[in-house]
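User: Structure please.
Assistant: Input sequence and predicted structure:
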Amino acid sequence: MEPYIKIQINVLNSLFELYNKEKINYCILRNYEDLPVKIGNDLDILIEKNQSKEVLKLLNKILKQYNFKLLKKNIRFGYIGVYYCHIETGNVILFDFYLSFSKRWYQYADVDYILDNKMKYKNFYIPQQGAILFTVLLKDLLTYSRLREKNNKLIENFTENLKQEFINTGKKYFTESLLENLYSKLEKGEVLPSKNSLLKLLKNSNSRINFFRYTYYRVKEVIKNLLFNKLYFIAIIGPDGVGKSTVTSNLKKDLIDKNLFKNILDVHHRFEFIPNISVLMNRRLDNAREKEQESNATNPSCMHSWYRTLAYHMYYSVDYILGYIYILKYKARGDLIIADRYFYDFFIQKHYDALHRWVKKVFYILIPQPNIIFFLSADAEIIYKRKLELTLDETLDQNKRCENIVDENIGYIIDADKDAAQVNQQIKKIIFKTMASSD
């Protein structure tokens, strides 16, 4: 058994023991069969709203005992998500706490009924099987208009007890006749109601005041996040051919798989709110690309004039400044932006050298700036032999320029001579450490 799995087992057993001792009213909503050994991507727990502060306090107490650090917390209408990272192993664990079952502002399941009728399973609590079937079915129908294939195991056995539990879970928001009809369709494999038809029914059963409460809560949440959330914005730089795009792609996939960020924006060079300047000048795109190839750093005699470089800075800075739209959006949601190259190419590429460095820095002050810069440092000879995008001297020069950028900003040098998994691990460790230090 892996060392981290042993840690995870101890963490969950200790947590359930503490919750039971402190009389926390909770239940594990799904995927509980293999607990505490397997938890999937996250652990879904239903709790009483008035116990949420105590639940999080006790959770933090246990996780600290086992050397976990809080990475981030997401709070939405009826939901609290907390992410922890184990300091030694780098493993991330996500706890999803639900205070209600809702789609938009429409609530569709009776939380009180579920918690009042929970059952003991191993050393923790779970809902009745009919309640599990109802909540999973409604979530799927209200999102996909169908029961997803992965949940088909829930409809293998139909019993009268299951039917009554199913009806009791939803009768606060739907009529019993509709619930009986829904259960019958499920049992017979008939066509189920569409998302839109269910939402229309929920409009009637959810009082209008809920809409205003929901809107107030969401606006308050966005304002709070914009004021107090840490911005997760990183940039990856390095000489041409070092593998920035590959590292960015691997990092993005890994962080999404870990459920740490729901959305990750991948920015290549710039945000692309405005067209390429060559396109704006009505040049054909193919010709523009040929010009770029003629003007790259492998041709040292093709350094742009200072006024041409200034024009580039003035034009593209508009795009970077418009990037604040994305910055605010992703900060409000607690999501991540990964920039490959970004504005730093103006400092790294030799053909922009005609413009004084201090002028470039003036433009840099005006644009969104990453929290962390990662410089992928690799042996210049290896980079040169790998892609032949630059001469050996130019690769050495770009390495030196990247070092200067890291020295002037909040940056880290990553050993890119290692394999892809090790490079990814180096970057993640720093990201996790930075996130944890902010909480």
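Residues 292-301 have pLDDT under 50 and may be disordered.
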